[in-house]
Specification:
Elements: H1 4-16, E1 35-39, E2 42-45, E3 50-53, H2 69-80, H3 90-102, E4 108-112, H4 115-130, E5 134-138, E6 151-153, E7 160-162, H5 169-172, E8 175-178, H6 183-193, E9 197-202, H7 218-229, E10 232-236, H8 249-254, E11 260-263, E12 274-278, H9 280-283, H10 302-317, H11 320-342, E13 347-349, E14 354-358, H12 391-395, H13 399-412, E15 415-416, E16 425-426, H14 433-446
Parallel strand pairs: 3-15, 5-8, 5-9, 9-10, 10-11
Antiparallel strand pairs: 1-2, 2-3, 4-12, 6-7, 11-12, 13-14, 14-16
Helix pairs in contact: 2-10, 3-10, 6-7, 11-14
Bound molecules: pyridoxal-5'-phosphate.
Residues 114-116, 119, 142-144, 203, 207-208, 236, 238-239, 264, 274 line the site of pyridoxal-5'-phosphate.
Keywords: Cytoplasm, Isomerase, Porphyrin biosynthesis, Pyridoxal phosphate
GO cellular component, one term: cytoplasm
InterPro entries: 4pyrrol_synth_GluAld_NH2Trfase, Aminotrans_3, Aminotrans_3_PPA_site, PyrdxlP-dep_Trfase, PyrdxlP-dep_Trfase_major, PyrdxlP-dep_Trfase_small
Amino acid sequence: MNHDRSRDLYDRALSVLAGGVNSSVRASMPYPFFAERGDGAHLVDADGNRYVDYVMGYGPLLFGHDLPDPVTAAIQQHASQGPMYGAPTEIEVELAEFVTRHVPSVEMLRFVNSGTEATVSAVRLARGYTGRDKIVVMQGGYHGAQESTLVEAGEDPYHTHPSSPGIPESFAEHTIAVPFNDEEAVTEVFSEHGEEIAAVLTEPILGNTGIVHPVDGYHRTLRDLCDEHGSLLVFDEVITGFRVGGLQCAQGEFGITPDLTTFGKIIGGGFPVGAVGGRAEVVEHFTPAGSVFQSGTFSGHPVTMAAGYETLKYAAEHDVYDHVNALGDELRAGIRDICEEHAPEYTVVGTDSMFKTIFTREAPEAFEGHCEAGCTQRETCPRYDICPKNSADVNAAATDRWERVFWQEMKERGIWLTANQFESQFVSYAHTEEDVERTLEAYKEAL
Ligand SMILES: *Cc1c(COP(=O)(O)O)cnc(C)c1O
């Protein structure tokens, strides 16, 4: 594969963009390829190389790169009528009505412009609503580039530190970071600080940390603790929303009703978006109905709203989730079989249309009875005691090998995966059986 043009473009970019990119995750080693165009499930780079794309914009592209006709038509119509107004439009009501019809916990919404803005607004809302300052997050959970959640914790969940320069130490004082899937740790935090906790904020499935599935009962424990102590449970469904569990989202799949949910990615049909939804009584605390300030020039942008609405409507009326989930199962089961033979210590993770392989270091004694298509923390699985339960377990895996060896080899074989061990990969409606077969062939050679 020739990458001359991408290398030249990156050379130019390094002079005028910090690190040559506009989102840090894009700067893969030694330099990223520049995208020229999409074609179904494939991406063509600036040098004309073609890849089967499982990055899918890091989550938003449910259909792959070719949008269904009604989605394209709605985008073009709204763009050509004048891009935005500063006055409300019918299309934002349509999308809000659609979401409230399908997502169990959502009665009312506020649209914003990114997943980050959604989680920032949700945390402010939870604090404003409860009159409390502390929030509980999961170690290694990701909620965007926001000050309250960019924290690291050691052994002691109370002594968190900002994970980036530029965030005052004092901000982290209000954030308690517990290990995911550890019922004891979060129960203890509530018994010591329950009256000060505004909210627990968690992804239903850790989607930015290798993909970690909850153990049975974990979310129920979080729900009960929040109820007992008057705290809000906030599900960050920016990745899982309208992907895991289809239109009901992960909360429907797990049967847990959060007080607030944050959305992003798919809900904007490929355009910048975020949203906070939940019980009307809570969401109405946002200005102007209530007093928790929230506002945005581009919020509810008509082109985004149209893309999001037509995307979800199309998914409701076609076999989109059946297709992506079936191919997801095929990929996970296929990679599992390859691992059994070539790398029994590795853990295949993911559900629905999300998949990843964590390069864990310990093999189970037996392979029989192994989770069929992605780790679901099934207690009877022979891997149960060694499969990753939290971000520390994922960090302990051979993460360098992914980035420096495996990912590069897959790329050379024309399969574009996420460039580090932590980010999820996605199957789109445009992927085919043939793509999956090619991908498994490449895994077999590269693993
Ligand atoms: C992507 C993501 C975010 C941040 O969304 P942006 O649109 O990148 O700001 C927040 N939470 C989760 C779970 C995400 O996956």
